[in-house]
Amino acid sequence: MQTLNRSRHDVVIVGGRVAGSATAMLLARLGHDVVVVDQASFPSDTVSTHSIARSGVVQLHRWGLLDEVLDSGAPAIRQITFHAGGESVSRPVKDKAGVDFFVAPRRYVLDTILADAAERAGADVRTGVTVTGVQRDGRGRVVGVLGRDRAGAGIGIGARYVIGADGLRSRVARSAGAPITEARPPGGATQYAYYAGIPWTGIEFFVGERSLAGVFPTHHGQACIWVCTPSAAAKAVRRRAWSRAAAFGELLERSAPQLAERLRQARRTSPVAGMLRMPNQVRQAFGPGWALVGDAGYHRDAVTGYGISDAFRDAEFLASALDQALGAVAEETAALALYQRRRDQELREIFEITCRLAAYPPVPAFIELQKQLSTAIDKQAKVLAARPDPAERLLATA
Ligand SMILES: Cc1cc2nc3c(=O)[nH]c(=O)nc-3n(C[C@H](O)[C@H](O)[C@H](O)COP(=O)(O)OP(=O)(O)OC[C@H]3O[C@@H](n4cnc5c(N)ncnc54)[C@H](O)[C@@H]3O)c2cc1C
Question: What is the pTM of this model?
């Protein structure tokens, strides 16, 4: 087995997308020795639509990455339209928390921008490395990870802290024994595909009976078209249809006939992707020598499109806690317990709204929840915008 700089690293992060690379970038900017490993290579896609809520855009702006996202060709989205009950209402994106547009960069672009930013800050990003479990010392403390590289050779990486940013099916969470502390019924399905050939002026939402569909413009003049429904509805349609694409078309037709009609002028440029029975769950966020961030520690239905923003928020809270622990400014358990408390406080309101939306109540109640969601996101964006520059050590005491 190859042992990479054993015990010399401050932090090893498993997973290099929105949660992992953001955490790595912030820690590296604070001067810590960070290794990121991911079994994937970048640029690469993952199963996810990618409309970023105001709070996520605030984070990109604060971290100095928003221009890079725009320069990649992701259009600034300045208009939102809601279609419900035969009515359509459009409004410009309001200027709040220093942000007056949204973005929806493809994940292969966004995740690469973050991984590159982590590297530029000094993190060592290693792709093609699959982690198989954590290593512990004689007292049970997690002290590193074990895995294998692309060629199948065994690898061990030692570090003071192991961070699981390895997504919903986190190997680090399972290997560290992080219990699920809260689980709500998994009910929702989200499916999506990309279309070219028609211009879109902004984000559009279509509220239907037990469905939410939508469109957001992304790179290369294309748009992501998505539909959220209860999983049972998605499965029933899939059983009848002769292909996944046909099932997607039928779901869209039912959920948002106006959108389906407009798509007859467009060309689908990707297969249909998505997820059924999306879990709504929170895991314990830390233990001796380890912590979780992003979907690894908290997963919610995609109906609110908030996972990327959750990951960005918690990456900063975790980087702050680790900075304190590594600098011996705070005792480790106190610092990581504060991280968990902040995460759990900040996720609460939107988690509750997400779970209620994912139960697809009647249209008026669904619309009311959407309004509550918008207020909750704006509130969180304001809190994040008011935080000090995360590259300064002030962060540690904020
Ligand atoms: C259908 C769908 C639509 C969505 N739409 C939106 C949306 O519009 N807006 C939004 O904000 N959020 C959305 N989300 C949620 C969002 O995709 C997630 O919250 C987000 O991707 C979480 O990021 P992460 O970095 O925690 O994990 P991930 O993006 O899952 O990344 C985990 C990384 O860990 C790596 N990894 C995993 N296991 C190992 C291992 N053993 N060894 C090495 N590497 C490993 C993987 O290769 C991967 O690169 C959606 C999700 C789904 C499923």
Answer: 0.96
